[in-house]
TrEMBL record:
This is Aminodeoxychorismate lyase. It comes from the Eukaryota. Pfam families: Aminotran_4 (PF01063). Signal peptide: none annotated. One of its GO terms (molecular function) is catalytic activity. It comes from Byssochlamys spectabilis (strain No. 5 / NBRC 109023).
Length: 282
């Protein structure tokens, strides 16, 4: 497959996609605990729905797919109605994979999803951390053994996923149900992202931008940081949520500054925010 966006081969060979959670509990929990920090539409059972539409639209625009762009001009009400037709049982949570091809054809694959606390779908706080910790142990976060070259296929979510699949295989991840993740990095040794998640690392606020803590700074003098898109990673929906609501700031994260046993967070559009531990020694 050609890796050059815009070639006839690439246009015929891949789709853009976004994966999100359908959960009937989201509107209730959003209204009760997170009304001020959860984006619209707050009454939707589709997690961060507008962000997923925007993500797909940005990808379609980058690859210059006019028919896909036209489809994605619909508002969130129309998009919800379109997705509703694919939900087998609206009383249960589901994992949805929304994919579009260059001709604007949209498919929605729906599968059962792993259970999680509805509150883990929202920006982490002290009480949420305690609730998540009591429900499941942290994920193990490994570092890939070889770099990945940044491209349009790492910035945007597409079906060109061989490099991510290989990274997962290299550290022994065999299933999406494994409580494990792998960090991918670029040839300059900068962390890009996780294979299916956005990572967040704890750093001293006085080491960020010359000592300016900015948003995301805690009372203990530490701040959560996530790699900037310039490192080559994906513009994820939960990443946008975390940045816009002040949970974290962007900062380059080099592989040589990772610490074995360090606690961190991961996030994605299906599981929300997940506690994790860096594992460098195996």
């Amino acid at each position: 497959m050609s890796s050059e966006p815009g070639s006839s081969t690439s246009l015929e060979s891949f789709s853009i996609f976004s994966t999100l959670r359908y959960d009937p509990q989201i509107p209730t929990v959003a209204a009760k605990f997170h009304a001020d920090i959860y984006p619209d539409p707050k009454n939707s059972p589709y997690y961060l729905l507008s962000f997923h539409r925007d993500r797909l639209l940005n990808a379609a625009t980058h690859f210059n797919w006019p028919k896909a762009i036209e489809f994605l001009q619909i508002d969130t009400i129309e998009l919800s109605q379109f997705l509703d037709r694919s939900i087998p049982d609206p009383s249960k949570p589901w994992r949805l994979r929304i994919a579009l091809d260059p001709k604007g054809n949209c498919t929605v694959d729906v599968n059962p999803t792993a259970p999680c606390s509805p509150r883990s779908l929202f920006i982490p706080s002290a009480d949420i951390e305690t609730e998540i910790a009591t429900q499941s142990p942290p994920w193990m976060l490994y570092l890939d053994t070889q770099p990945i070259r940044p491209s349009a296929f790492t910035t945007h979510k597409t079906t060109v996923r061989d490099e991510y699949t290989s990274a997962r295989e290299r550290v022994g991840i065999t299933s999406l149900l494994d409580p494990m993740e792998v960090l991918v990095f670029n040839p300059q040794g900068k962390v890009m992202e996780g294979s299916i998640t956005t990572p967040y690392f704890r750093r001293r606020a006085d080491t960020i931008d010359g000592g300016e803590s900015g948003s995301g700074s805690g009372e203990d003098g530490f701040v959560w940081v996530t790699p900037p898109l310039s490192s080559g990673g994906n513009a994820g929906t939960t990443r946008r949520y975390a940045l816009e609501k002040g949970f974290c700031v962007e900062r380059v994260v080099n592989t040589d500054e990772l610490v074995d046993g360090a606690e961190c967070w991961l996030s994605n559009g299906v599981r929300g925010f997940i506690q994790a531990v860096v594992v460098l020694k195996r």
